[in-house]
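for the recovery benchmark. tokens below, seq after
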């Protein structure tokens, strides 16, 4: 007789509208232009998704100069510096920008503040493709990066009274509040976004994990190690009372010994993890335990983003 186990399944979880759109863009580009279609950087941070698109004819590269000029190229959902589409145009390449519209919103915001003579402070993770893309919308030196509240003390802006801040869309909501408070405390005139930069999907997935964390002894987050929003979900679980929170890419990564004797486990997935991987994890639990699944729903999502016009026009 299997031991009883309750799985608390977060809702919302997994794919967001921006990820859905980016994957659709690659699939539609292959259907329109045939294989191979080149993609600069992983379209979204998930190995299963990337491998699936590769099997259909997508070729993933890190830089534009790895793409033959006669084949279409797609820019990832994380966004790219302005220099990338400019280089594609110089080479007369056909390109499709799969940047998530909510990331594009932050780009537009940064440009608006720059046009008004403000220097930008970006709250984000150094080296993350989204941070690189957003900082690359403006000339060098116009965007100062802070990763933690302590970084605010060492900022040396051109004019402390002429600042605005923006954020990466996949940050921890709670951590960002602390950084924003530090910025406002040191620079009282700093201008914030009209509407929160952290995207609805990140916020909703973190809220669902907070709801689950107090009910369980372990939380598993299905996602990739290089996925910012997935890693934030692990942190949120730990910060809200669940000591054992782990990031797993697939069911095969689960450390079953660590779950020994645990009667309740929370499951969620980052915004670039497909539902098939969540089902795989639930099936792995069912093979070992007498499982009861309880859905913990904290929000409903019905956001949908259109693909670019070039793909909606028939070949």
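predicted aa per position
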């Amino acid at each position: 007789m299997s031991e009883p186990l309750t799985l608390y399944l977060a809702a919302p979880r997994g794919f967001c509208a921006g990820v859905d759109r980016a994957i659709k863009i690659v699939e539609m580009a292959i259907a329109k232009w045939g294989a191979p279609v080149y993609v600069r950087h992983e379209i979204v941070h998930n190995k299963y998704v990337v491998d699936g698109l590769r099997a259909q004819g997508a070729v993933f590269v890190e830089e534009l100069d790895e793409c033959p000029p006669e084949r279409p190229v797609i820019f990832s959902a994380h966004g790219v510096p302005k220099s990338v589409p400019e280089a594609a145009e110089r080479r007369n390449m056909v390109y499709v920008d799969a940047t998530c519209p909510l990331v594009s919103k932050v780009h537009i915001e940064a440009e608006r503040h720059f046009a008004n003579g403000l220097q930008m402070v970006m709250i984000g993770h150094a080296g993350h493709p989204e941070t690189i893309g957003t900082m690359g919308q403006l000339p060098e030196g116009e965007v100062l990066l802070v990763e933690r509240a302590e970084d605010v003390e060492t900022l040396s802006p051109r004019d402390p009274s002429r600042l605005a801040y923006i954020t990466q869309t996949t940050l921890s909501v709670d951590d960002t509040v602390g950084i924003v408070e530090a910025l406002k405390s040191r620079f009282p005139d700093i201008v914030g976004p009209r509407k929160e930069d952290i995207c609805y999907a990140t916020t909703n997935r973190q809220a669902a994990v907070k709801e689950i964390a107090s009910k369980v002894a372990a939380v598993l987050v299905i996602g990739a190690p290089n996925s910012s929003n997935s890693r934030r979900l692990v942190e949120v679980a730990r910060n809200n009372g669940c000591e054992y929170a782990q990031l797993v890419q697939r069911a095969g990564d689960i450390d079953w010994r660590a779950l020994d004797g645990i009667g309740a486990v929370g499951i969620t997935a980052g915004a670039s993890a497909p539902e098939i991987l969540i089902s795989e994890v639930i099936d792995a639990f069912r093979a070992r335990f007498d499982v009861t699944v309880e859905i913990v729903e904290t929000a409903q999502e019905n956001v949908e983003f259109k693909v670019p016009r070039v793909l909606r026009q028939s070949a």
